[in-house]
Amino acid sequence: MFRQKEKTEDAVMDLIKQKGRLDLREIEFLYSHGTLSRSGIRRRFDKNDATEYRQSFSLDVDRILHSLAYTRYIDKTQVFYLIENDHITHRVLHVQLLSKIARTIGRFLGLNEDLIEAISLGHDVGHPPFGHEGERILSNLCRDHGIGHFAHSVQSLQCLDEVERSGNGWNLCLQTLDGILCHDGEIHNQTLSPHLNKTFEDLDEERKKKTMDPQCPLAPMTLEGCVVRMADTISYIGRDLEDAIRLNLVKRSEFPEESVKCLGDTNGSIVYNLVTDVIQASYEKPHIAFSPEVSEALKNLKQFNMERIYMNPRIKQHLGNISVLFEMLFERFGNDMETREGESVIFTGFLKGKSRRYKEKHSNAEIVRDFIAGMTDRYFLNLCPENLRPGLIIL
User: Fold this and answer.
1) Which residues contact 227 (CB under 8 A, 6 or more apart)?
2) What is the pTM of this model?
3) Cα(175)–Cα(118) distance, rounded to whole angstroms?
4) Is the pLDDT of residue 50 over 80?
5) Would you place residue 284 in the very low, low, confident or very high pLDDT band (cuts 50, 70, 90)?
6) 252-276, pLDDT tens digit by residue?
7) How far apart are CA 388 and CA 393, in angstroms?
8) Which domains are assigned to the chain?
9) Minimal CA–CA distance to 190: which of 305, 292, 306, 301?
10) d(CA 227, CA 289)
């Protein structure tokens, strides 16, 4: 038995040595402004670090993949909700597309693909039910209850850092959490330069700023974070157009002419041309950028999507009803927290097994926010009275 244990320990030490070799290889192969895995910083010391053979950001990827929040991507709205069509993009597919696109860019630019993947996979776990519509509704409720605005980027941090693992969080690296907080793909940038040398204190301060003002512009601390932010737009802009065509909301012939000339009129051509342009405009540069021409074409395409898709009243038929249901659930669970209604699902489900640290650190309204934000669309509706649940949208 002793010899077997000794043999196992020797095998682990061999893996740790290989990790060291991988760290040294990064110095040789990564671009000088790329993020080395050995530079990963965690908020808390982990006693298992001494025997951990995975590189820092690779470990972050695994932790995010195995989080409960990641499994709930499967039934989270991307753009279109309450529509019965198996080919419409859901949040889980968007996250996978973003990860692939961002890693492709990162590979050609000589950046850390593990860090890119970790940020990509975790960037949207804070999205509430019903996508950006749900985010706006929940933000109003949070503000009304004195806990600031709700921003899904902040909530993604909250989820991975405070809610997961019974309220103890995953202890992810600073660079991963920073990229998640600063991923705002809705903000248009031609050029994005990293704000280097941030600390956890800076992260906490920027998180507070974002809670006070969701429009507050933030820049990632790494080039990898900048890549994910640019790739976020690339991953959804053409895909949303294809979904809209499939649902007869727009026609391909209606796309902005100048954007089509520059980027093409299919998701495949749009992604290819945007990725190619980012690589060419960013290669061996201390920033991530689009060329001026492509940036303008993309900006016009985003405006077209906003007017013809995201603000289209045909997909908002049940928005008023959904808003009422959000208010109903927030009030219901807030009252349950006040009266300590032990039979409530917020106690029997969400808070069951949560650490004392989480319960003491968060107000009742913040706990309700975390509970609702983590719900899938289906679970949210199942908690609502059956006679008030909206039906499918018929386009």
Assistant:
1) 102, 105, 106, 109, 111, 116, 278, 288
2) 0.95
3) 10
4) no
5) very high
6) 999 999 999 999 999 999 999 999 9
7) 15
8) 58-315 (1.10.3210.10), 320-388 (no CATH)
9) 292
10) 9
